[in-house]
Amino acid sequence: MHKVLSYLGLGSNEGDRERNLRTAIERLGQTPGIRVLRTSALRESTLVGEGPKQDPFLNGVVEIETTQSAAALLAVCKALEAAAGRALPAKKNHPRPLDLDLLLYGDLRIDTRDLVVPHPELLARVFVLEPLLELGLSEELLRERCAIERPCLLTAQSELSAKCSEWLEGGCLVGLVPTMGALHQGHASLFERARRECDRIVATIFVNPLQFGPKEDLAAYPRDLPGDLRICAAAGVDAVFAPSPGEMYGDGFCSTVAVGREAETMEGALRPGHFQGVATVVARLFALARPHRAYFGQKDAQQVAVIRRLVKDLGFPLRLVECPTVREPDGLAMSSRNVYLDAADRRAAGVISLALRTAQEAFRGGERDRDAIVRAAVAVIAAEPRAQLDYLELRSDGDLLPQPAGAVSGGRLVTAVRFGAARVVRLLDNMPLVENSESSQS
Ligand code: PAF
């Protein structure tokens, strides 16, 4: 059977530390398929990261030759930790009688839920790096083996499928965040939510030509891949899929997803074909990545309603996660298109959220008439000469279908407002009508 040269990191800071480590090494050597070749000297270290006050660790590295698979080796390590008295699943950064980490497994790269090899902290932890150097591995070789790009940049559809398959087969919960790039704090909040909820997250950056009309800003849409990659890296995104239009829609691509009543009015009426383009690219991304969860911003409420319908009707097996709108200090909803605003329009654009909040306050003050609530908001926008209203409507929350005139018990105000003369900038926003102040901004 094929023998693989591997390295395990050992640590203990509870009980008789040296005895715990020596016993583990002895037991490793007694395990079928494992031969212990060499052990580094043991050295002390203190806890890295936040945790309860605790004694220093004793650490070392053991070099083994094994016919066991990496997954089987991990199971051996977990069994030895349990035998040493470690309560599993282990609490992060708590004292432990034994900690065993698979650092290197031949030159294989593994990226599953339970195991990432080479160990991601290998170069950063002196108590791991020094023993490896002591055992004769060169720093250059370690740097080469550990040079894993995060986020890794994928440009081919096959790469996205393969990366997600690797994660899915490795038991990871995968989150997808579709974007058109020009990333800002609003996108970062989607990444942060996905990071909290998933094992691996992939962001897509693709300015989708199918969702732009012939007179729209496709060519001028802001693009900054290096800047976007920096934002993704800071937010802990694992992979970025940034295909060219030819890659996404090459090879005679001609199928589209038809969308229904959620897409008929407001943006759908003003931008014919827009939601069909959105639904087509989103369906394509879902099919390629097969994520467990997909994250979208509530700022584009109608888009979310269309995608919710798409997921339901076409039976995509994923959870749609709708995330709250992130706002500038003056209330303007963050959008990639805000960069188009000149200084005067940018100042004036705060009027959108002011209008929505005015209507919300009217509702909280007891106003229940649909048209009176809408009028309260429209009056605020009308008072700003730089703003031109495309629509402002009070729709039912969720599917955003029209509400009949008369008394309402809530709903969502949805608006699109234009700014600029030479270059028109259309900004979207929405706000729920709720009694209390909680979630009133989302
Ligand atoms: O909201 C967007 O950025 C785009 O419409 C989306 C969902 C990424 C599809 O191109």
In the CATH hierarchy, the architecture of the largest domain is 3-Layer(aba) Sandwich
Class by helix and strand content?
alpha/beta
Can you identify the CATH class of the largest domain?
Answer: Alpha Beta
Widest beta sheet: strand line-up: 8-11-10-9-12-13
| Fraction of residues in helix | 25-40%
Number of helices: 14
Strand content: 15-25%
Give the overall shape, derived from the CA principal axes.
elongated
* Average residue pLDDT: 95
Poorly predicted runs of 5 or more residues: none
> Which fold name corresponds to the CATH topology of the largest domain?
Rossmann fold
The bound ligands are:
pantoate
User: How does the major sheet shape up?
Assistant: 6 strands, parallel
Distance between the termini: 58 Å
How many beta-strand elements?
16
Secondary-structure blueprint of this entry?
Blueprint: E1 4-12, H1 17-30, E2 34-39, E3 43-45, E4 57-66, H2 70-83, E5 99-105, E6 110-111, E7 116-117, H3 126-134, H4 139-146, E8 152-154, H5 157-169, E9 174-179, H6 185-197, E10 200-205, H7 225-234, E11 239-241, H8 245-248, H9 267-270, H10 274-289, E12 293-297, H11 301-314, E13 319-323, H12 343-348, H13 351-364, H14 370-382, E14 388-395, E15 411-419, E16 425-433
Parallel strand pairs: 8-11, 9-10, 9-12, 10-11, 12-13
Antiparallel strand pairs: 1-4, 1-5, 2-4, 3-4, 6-7, 14-15, 15-16
Helix pairs in contact: 10-11, 13-14
Bound molecules: pantoate (PAF).
Residues 178-180, 208, 211, 278, 281-282, 300, 303 line the site of pantoate.
